[in-house]
Protein: Diacylglycerol kinase catalytic domain protein
Organism: Bacteroides fragilis str. 3998T(B)3
Amino acid sequence: MQKRWKEIKEYMDSKGVSYDYVQSEGFGSVERLAGILANNGYRTIVVVGGDGALNDAINGIMSSNAEKKEEIAIGIIPNGIGNDFARYWELNLEYKQAVDWIINNRRKKIDVGYCNFYDGEKHQRRYFLNAVNIGLGARIVKITDQTKRFWGVKFLSYLAALFLLIFERKLYRSHLKINDEHIRGRIMTVCVGSATGYGQTPSAVPYNGWLDVSVIYRPEFLQILSGLWMLIQGRILNHKVVKSYRTRKVKVLRAQNAAVDLDGRLLPRHFPIEIGIIPEATTLIIPN
C-alpha cells in the first residue's frame, strides 16, 4: 500500500492537485476519519481502497454533523481485491485514470442504502453503497477475514472460503418480506443490492431509487457450477434456483444463524433487520 500510495502521490503532485492526506490506522479508522473530515468542512473526500473502505467512508459521512452532507463528493482510487462498486463505474486499478477523473470532477447524485437493526442494547443504522449479503455471501466474507491471518493474502483466503462454502451448500431457515410478499423457506443466500452486488444483482442501478434483491434457494451440485458460470457472465437471474425482486424496502424477519455483511463489512447478527434506500443521498465523482 505504501509503495502504491507513493506512486499515486507523485502523480497527483505532478498534476498540481491540492489535497490533504490522512493515513488510516487499521480497521474502523476510515469511518472515524471520514466523519472528522466531513465535520471539519471538507467537501470532497477521496478514498484509496476497496468496497470495505468505501463502506467505512459513507458511514462516517452519513453519521457526521456536516451540513448538506448529500453534497459531499466521494472520489474513488481503487485498491485491493474488493472493488465491485468501482467496477460498476468502469474504474480499475489504473490509478492515473482514477486521478484524472477526480481532477475532472464530474459529479452524480447516487443512492445510499441503509440497514436498521437492534444490537441488543440500542437501535442502530448502518449504510451501504453496493449490497447487503445474508447467508453464503456473508459467510465468505467472514471466513476470508478469519483465514487471512493464516494465508496472509486476502485473495487466497477469499478463494479458499468460496470453494469451501459452495461445496458445503449450507441453507438457512429464513423469513423475508418483500413488496408485501412473505418468503419463507430454506435459502442459501440473499443479496440486496443498490449496485451489482458482485454479480448477484446485475440489473441494479445505484441512482434509480430502488433495491434489487436476489434470493438463491438450494441448488444441486451441477447447478452450483452452472450458477458460478452465469454469475461471471452477469446472467445469474436466469438460473432456476434464483428468484429476483425490485423493491424499496426489505424486512428480514428471520435467517437462522446466517451471517450478514454490508459491502464486505460484517454486521452484528440481530434479526429482524430492515433494509431500505435513500435516493440521491450522496454525491460521487464519476468517470468522464
